[in-house]
Amino acid sequence: MSQLETKAEWLAKQLVQLAQESKDYKQKALLFAARDLLMEQGKRIEQARGQLDGELWSPNQWGE
């Protein structure tokens, strides 16, 4: 597990905890949306890493 993943998991837990403690609907919605955005960014980073890794090791891409 990378340090970035560890920080993202910690931040996601903090966002959920703050949202659960909040009594304001708009604040809850914002905190849950921030958590969802954080999770989506994590997925996209992982996909980009996989794509980059695949392209770097693809002999078909080496000549271009």
From TrEMBL:
Q: Which domain of life is it from?
A: Bacteria
Record protein name field: Uncharacterized protein
Which species? Enterococcus camelliae
